[in-house]
Amino acid sequence: MYQNLALFTAFLLLYSIFAGRFEKRLLNGPLVFMLMGLILGPALLGIVQPRIDKDGLRTLAELTLAIVLFSDAANANLKVLRAHEGLPLRLLLIGLPLTIVLGWLVGVWLFPQVPLLELAILATLLAPTTRAGKAVVTNPKVAEPVREGLNVESGLNDGICVPVLLLFLALLVEEQAHNPVFLALELVAEELGIGALCGVLLTVAAWQLQQFSWKHQWQMPVWSQLTLPGLAVLCFATAQVLGGSGFIAAFVGGLLAGYLFKEQKHHLLEASEEFASLLSVLTWGVFGALVIPKAWSSLTWNIWLYALLSLTVVRMLPVLLSLSGTRFDTETRLFMAWFGPRGLATIVFAVMIIDYPLEAINTLVATAICTVLLSVLLHGVSANPWVARLVRRTP
């Protein structure tokens, strides 16, 4: 354990010192730490030997995703969203359903042996856009409507796909279900409704307590840094306990916190973003060290092809259709269509389905892992060059 800890923290220290040098090129944190885990892990050098089971990986990925969603939502510029409200709505109401349908159709073509309902589960696994990465979402050089549109889409996509995935899983398990429409409405109401309600109520309560403490001068700068990270995890965990979507709770709570805490939010979010970065690189390190090697032997040609199509045609065509009629030029539309990587949410969903009686569970999990791997590689190396190209084009 201590050898793993020493090696990981030494690599983290070196990367934190020279990150600017790396990230100005074709590399970024997720890609570097995934490669670090792959090279130093059991598959190659065998120097790092992490011991974590699927429940531990799921918990790590869920907590990371919850804090990331909360932080991104709290940093969202609501004025820009109100001015361009049609953009995230187009991506969510048109792009997301079309992505799932197109992913299902490609699965029918490439995996004829997999049951149709399980192919719908696979398409839903790969539909979320965890976020387009710091090089896009938090880069001030990217136009605000593009950044905020992708940011909101990624947060809501992750939460919306949860009830859709649970619906397909319930239909698979509940073979005697007589009213799937009612089941769908019930699941959507529970996941989205409970999640949003938890996010709103807990954030309002935390804000009121913070205001009361501020008036009485009970705030301490050291401890106040933990307010929003604690709120993010509280929103997520409470919603999960009550049967709602913890990801929706975290995202809604983050949006509301960004509005209520106003000028204080940037100071209070510093620790939250640092926690998210630390958990994120740890997740990608474990993914590279353990998950990729275990799935590698299962990656057949049709899995590689599906993963490639999932990142290109399946993601990009629906987004381009949803953006038709907007004022964005062709390259900006392609930019938004391309940056929808499958990352933390897909890892969480893939771990979730392992416990269900799926005939093609190995194919589904291997395809999800392959898609995440390609996403980290392709989106990672293309983010900075494409952002730089868009900046040069801007008059």
From TrEMBL:
It is a multi-pass membrane protein. This is Sodium:proton antiporter. GO terms for cellular component: plasma membrane. Residues 11-388 form the Cation/H+ exchanger transmembrane domain. Gene3D superfamilies: 1.20.1530.20. Keywords: Antiport, Cell membrane, Ion transport, Membrane, Transmembrane, Transmembrane helix, Transport. GO terms for biological process: proton transmembrane transport. It comes from Pseudomonas laurentiana. GO terms for molecular function: antiporter activity. PANTHER family: CNH1P, NA(+)/H(+) ANTIPORTER 1. The chain crosses the membrane at residues 29-48, 91-111, 228-261, 273-292, 304-323, 335-354, 360-383. It is found in: Cell membrane. The keyword Magnesium does not apply.
